[in-house]
Amino acid sequence: MAIREILVVPNPVLKEVSAPVERVDDELRALMDDMLETMYAAPGIGLAAIQVGVPKRVIVMDIARDGEEKQPRFFANPEILWASEETAPYEEGCLSVPEIYDEVERPARVKIRYLDYRGETVEEDAEGLFAVCIQHEMDHLDGVLFIDHLSRLKREQAIKKVKKQAKAA
Ligand code: K2U
Ligand code: ZN
Question: How many separate domains does the chain show?
Answer without folding.
Answer: 1
